[in-house]
Structures are given as structure tokens and as C-alpha cells.
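does this look right to u?? zinc ion version
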Amino acid sequence: MFAIDAHLDLSMNALEWNRDLRQSAAAINARERARNLTDKPDRGNATVSFPDLRRGGFGLVVATQIARFVAPDNPLPGWNSPEQAWAQTQGQLAWYRAMEEAGELVQIADRRGLDAHVARWQAAIGSGGDTARLPIGYILSLEGADSIVTLAHLERAHAAGLRALGPGHYGPGRYAHGTDATAPLNAAGHELLRGMDRLGIILDATHLCDEAFWTALDVFTGPVWASHNNCRALVDHNRQFSDEMIRGLVARGAVIGGPLDAWMMVPGWIRGKSLPEPMGCRLEVMLDHLDHICQIAGNADHIGIGSDLDGAYGREQSPYDLETIADLARLPSMLGRRGYSAADVEKVMHGNWLRFLRDAWK
Ligand SMILES: [Zn+2]
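got this back:
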């Protein structure tokens, strides 16, 4: 089935992990194991590549640029100036462009491009045809706004195709505080949201600290989604949405993407120590979170996939019954067994993100 993943860090993997995503995950992993790489926690455990995306039916993804600014007192990894962070995102953009030139990716930035691309993939899948040669569509997003040096940079980013932005990420941000930090949305954050409104950029509410989340929902008037976020009721952490936040998002017509990072799926996960199988972290748990959102919404119109499967972790920290992202093609039958109708299954796999984008870009 045609599928959409609303959150992948493709360019980060290409440039910081040095992964050639044209190779299969198996080939990427074999090369990393042969070289005994240990510089990243997920070496040899990659689950995302272009061939695996295609095998899973993923013809469209929301793909990030990502670069954090860190003040001297911020212990998180990141760049020492916003200008360096901006340059990093421009390198990431250059890689997306190179993959477009290579015929692997195609940027989707408006309604007409979206409809034509989806029709092409649906036709290939519907006829049992080969998707191996089709470019994967990508919608350019930015995770954490630190690299937006000034609002003029936001305009340049939009001109380059930026269509969704999450103002915060981890820790204190220049525009908004994110996971594990807390502060009211600052003046620059207000200005950023007004700029995004003007340009029609989607607000990604993922990672926003609670205070910034509620202010952002008040200030921002445009379309809001949460590309990759699970539920606080199932795993209690400030990274997750409370039921009240989910209700707030549903009221705005948001779609919330389910991520597969183990610590956000099952309670009690200890990074670098816990293992997926003894912790009971399997694909089915993703559906527990998605189902919780459906119970609050009273329908299946507000959930989708936002796997985050290449977000600085791999098989060591994702469901044990998933080898690559292609295994998400099992979701339709799993949803069916839970009683989701065929129409609802389609909504989860692609329909909700598509409806959202068509509304946002009409
Ligand atoms: Zn994230």
C-alpha cells in the first residue's frame, strides 16, 4: 500500500553518519560492521534506506534539515553559532538536491506536485508495477529552528522548499524550548510563528515544551501537525503529548505521526542498556499509542506514521520485530486485526497526511 512517513532525518544520516542511502540498510550495515565503527550508538543497525523505503511502499516522506545552536552553558551537542547551524542545513539541502539530480528523490512543495506524484506512485502500486525506479517524494522540513539566523533566512528556506518547521528540539532553543527544557515562548518565537503564518509553513508541534506548545497553538493561525510524537498516558515523559495536548491538536485538525523510538514506546527504557525484546518493544506497541489518540479523537482521522527510524538510533532501540522500515508494510494487516476498517487503514498509511497537505496547500 502507498505509505507516507512524516519524519525521517535522511540528510543527517547521509552527512553526519556518512550513509549512502541508495544502498540497502543491509549493505550500509555490512559496511559499518566491516569497519568496526563505534562513533555512533546505532552503527551497523540502520533500518532506513531508499531501497527499503520503496519496498515498504513509502513514496512520500517528510525529510528534515537539522542543526542545533548551543550557548556556552548548553551541554548538548551542537554548533557554536546560528550561522554555523545555518551552513550545516545548507549542506543538508545540497545533499537533497544531489539525490534529486540522481533521480532518487523529488521535492514536493505544492499541491500540483503532490497530486501528480501520489498519482504516479498509486498507479505503479495499483498495477502491481515496479516502484524501484520511482523517485521518492520528499517534503522539506526543519527540526528545531536554531539555524534560522534571521527571518530573512526563513524566507530563503521557504524559497528552497521548506514547508514544515518545528521551532524547538531538545533543550533550550533560540526560538522555543524543546524536550527536557521549559520556558514561555520568547519574542523571537512569536516573530518566527508570524513569519511562518505569512509564508504558509506548517507548524510541527513535536518537541515543543508544554509552555511553548500552548502559546504556539494560540499565536499560530495556520496548519499544525505533529510529525513524530507519542502519548504521555502510555509513557510518562515531557517529550510525549498529554491527553489535553492531543485534544488541543485534534481541535486544530492536526495529524500526529507515531514514532518508533523504543524509549518513547515502552515505559522504563534506559538508553544504552535496555533491549527491545525483554522490554516488550514490538511494532504492536506503536498501535497502542495511535489507538490512544483515536480514542481521544473519536475517530481515526488524526494519526499517521512519523517513524523517526533514522533519528540517531537503529535496531538496538526500535521494535524487535522490525528489521527495516519496509516492515511497516505489515501495519495494514495489524490494524485490520485490531478492527480498523479498510478505509481507516488507508487513512493511517497515507490518507490523513494527504488530506492535511491538500488542505494546507489548497
Ligand atoms: Zn525528533
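The two ends are 25 Å apart (CA to CA). idk if thats expected tbh
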